[in-house]
Amino acid sequence: MIQQRIWAMRLIRFAAIFGFLGVLIGSIMSGEMNYALRPIHAHFVLVGWLSVFAWGIFYYSVPIRKLLYVKVQSILGMIGAVGLCIGMWLHYLDPLNTNETLNMVFFIVGGSILLIAFFLFFIVTFFIEKKEN
């Protein structure tokens, strides 16, 4: 359970970074009255903050029988959130003037990894420790 809580806190800290960045992006958009970053802001907040935070809280409070599932799902969730958000940023704004194919690879691969992480979380929910009455 201690190792599981370590992973839970990693997710919560990761989510806090994304929450801060999401609010920062929102503040910048509001201050500049330029809402071009709206989809990126939304994904930072919804995927990077809310989803990852919810996973962290779940893992902190619900004992899971297979720690390996928690580790794999957590790692894939964090990689997917970063990949999807960077991919969206590159695709919508192309700030680095990079190849469009490369931008789409980040977007699609990041989103696909995130999709796998969500599916794994669904699987993990069937491996909870049963409390004895």
Automatic annotation (TrEMBL):
<dbReference type="InterPro" id="IPR036927">
    <property type="entry name" value="Cyt_c_oxase-like_su1_sf"/>
</dbReference>
<protein>
    <recommendedName>
        <fullName>Cbb3-type cytochrome c oxidase subunit I</fullName>
    </recommendedName>
</protein>
<feature type="transmembrane region" description="Helical">
    <location>
        <begin position="104"/>
        <end position="128"/>
    </location>
</feature>
<feature type="transmembrane region" description="Helical">
    <location>
        <begin position="74"/>
        <end position="92"/>
    </location>
</feature>
<keyword id="KW-1133">Transmembrane helix</keyword>
<keyword id="KW-0812">Transmembrane</keyword>
<feature type="transmembrane region" description="Helical">
    <location>
        <begin position="12"/>
        <end position="30"/>
    </location>
</feature>
<feature type="transmembrane region" description="Helical">
    <location>
        <begin position="42"/>
        <end position="62"/>
    </location>
</feature>
<keyword id="KW-0472">Membrane</keyword>
